[in-house]
Amino acid sequence: STTLRFRSSRACIGLCEACVAAMGGGNSIQLVANVQSITVPGKKCIMSTALEDMFPPITPRSVLDALVDWWTRPVEEKSELVLKTVAVTDNGPNDFTVKVVYDGQKLDEYGFGRGDGADRVRRWKRVMVEEEKNSITWVDHVPVPTMGAWIDEATQAIGECLTLTILKDPQRVEIVALTPEGSYVSDEKFKEGMQHFLTPIIQEAQQRSQDVVRARIGPAMTQSGEQSVLVSSMDRHVDYDAFFEQYVAAQRDRLEAIPNVVIQEPKDGEFFGINPENNAAHIVKFDFGSGGITVRHEDEQNTVLSTTHYRVHKRPLVLEAWHVNQTGTRSASLHLAGVVQKDANKSIERANSWFRMVGLRRPCCAMRSSAGL
User: Fold this and answer.
1) 257 in Cβ contact with 336 (< 8 Å)
2) Which DSSP letter does residue 43 get?
3) CA 196, CA 22: separation in Å to the nearest integer?
4) Scanning 94, 281, 311, 318, which has its CA 20 to 30 A from the CA of 31?
5) Cis check: omega of the bond before 57, within 30 degrees of 0
6) Burial profile 115-141: b = 16 or more Cβ within 10 angstroms, e = fewer
7) Of 80, 12, 98, which is closest to residue 333 (Cα–Cα)?
8) Backbone phi, then psi, for 8, in 5-degree steps?
9) Where are the alpha helices (DSSP H) in 181-327?
10) Whole-model pTM?
11) Separation between Cα atoms, residue 239 and residue 234, nearest integer Å
């Protein structure tokens, strides 16, 4: 097949789950148990060896981006078969809650259910990022050791709190874990769990550190007083036509990664994917002339849940993005910045690839339509 797929390889496990195969290539992070904490004096933590010794190298921002990207959809590939919903609630700047629910009927079919079709809340976490401290904190609302809780037993209680900080001089990862009872966890078992969790995250961060363009949050180009995610300085790497084409293709790749999704192309400049399990839809519209791309998420009743807007500006070549939630509130989050940076770099890579140079393109990506956005 001449179709190119760039699916994010993401294998991550909870602290109690079995170890999965690590992504290949490069050095991995090495953790040490029961080390004196730098951020919480007098307490013990998990600490890594110096990040400067790793190859390819990583940056604090790339680690935070990779973690935010994971926590906005913390679902292992093997779990997609029983996944029902992933809901992300924006609590404010760099603060969100994610809730992952497994389908109770499917769990029953596979022999892991309660027998009455009850759904299971596999993960329910609040995630907070402090960029100035190079730290990210997540708080469990359902217990990790029991792999969550049945939906009629999940109460959003405050559980274990983990804070991961990228320290300076030298750069190291510090992980402080606090239980609801007020005790700190830093033993060998916890360290092993975090080692398995962070290995693919760090390897993803290594890849991000090699990106040719970066996404940042800054003043919006299209609406005064608002914030957008911006990717600048792209002219030296790619031209407008090739980038726009491949960025549209990247949005389709994201839809095709949804298990059992049905893709339809009703007209030029539009395609959408429907999840047959719950009839939720993602509608993508694009206009080559204006540089606009929108990705709209609707539920089974055609209620708009959210819309992500992209605008490719020609001179200079800049990608701008922002998100609008169900209430109409506009935002530019770290998660969106991570997604945009990943798709922008993949688009540049593919635009300069041998496949495109010899004219192998997707029909949907070659359309230069004037679809209404």
Assistant:
1) no
2) S
3) 8
4) 94
5) no
6) eeebbbbbbbbbbbbeeeebbbbbbbb
7) 98
8) -70, 120
9) 188-209, 240-256
10) 0.62
11) 8
Q: Do 133 and 107 meet the contact criterion of CB atoms below 8 Å apart?
A: no
Please enumerate in sequence order all residues whose Cβ is within 8 A of that of 178, keeping only pairs 6 or more positions apart, or say none. Answer: 160, 161, 162, 163, 184, 185
User: Are the beta carbons of 204 and 10 closer than 8 angstroms?
Assistant: yes
Average pLDDT in the 181-208 region?
92
* Other Cβ atoms closer than 10 A to 89: 11
The pLDDT, as a whole number, for residue 310 is 97
Structure tokens at 340: 């945009």
Give dist(CA 110, CA 355) in Å, integer: 42
Report d(CA 181, CA 189) in Å as an integer.
Answer: 19
Q: How many CB atoms lie within 10 A of CB 19?
A: 12
Tell me the C-alpha distance between 52 and 94, whole Å: 27
CA angle 123, 66, 213 (to 5 degrees): 150
**Which amino acid does the sequence have at 123?**
R
Of 14-18, 122-126, 287-291, least confident by mean pLDDT is 14-18
Predicted confidence (pLDDT) at residue 208 exceeds the cutoff of 90: no
Q: 244 near 341, Cβ under 8 Å?
A: no
Read off the pLDDT of each residue in 151-164 and give the average, rounded to a whole number: 94
d(CA 269, CA 372): 8
Q: For the chain, what's the residue count?
A: 373
Q: Residue 187: which residues within 8 A CB-CB, separation 6 or more? A: 33, 34
DSSP for residue 245: H
DSSP 7-42: --------TTSPP-PPPPSS----EEEEEE-SSSTT
- The owner of tokens 């993602």 is 282
Comparing C-alpha atoms, which of 137, 113, 135 is closest to residue 126? 137
CA distances (Å), 261 to each of 276, 304, 356, in order? 7, 19, 26
How confident is the prediction for the chain on average, in pLDDT? 85
Do the bridges between strand 44-48 and strand 31-36 make them parallel or antiparallel, or are there none, so unpaired?
antiparallel
Beta strands 304-313 and 292-298 are antiparallel
DSSP annotation of 68: H
Instruction: Extract the tokens encoding 271.
Output: 């395609």
pLDDT on residue 239: 95
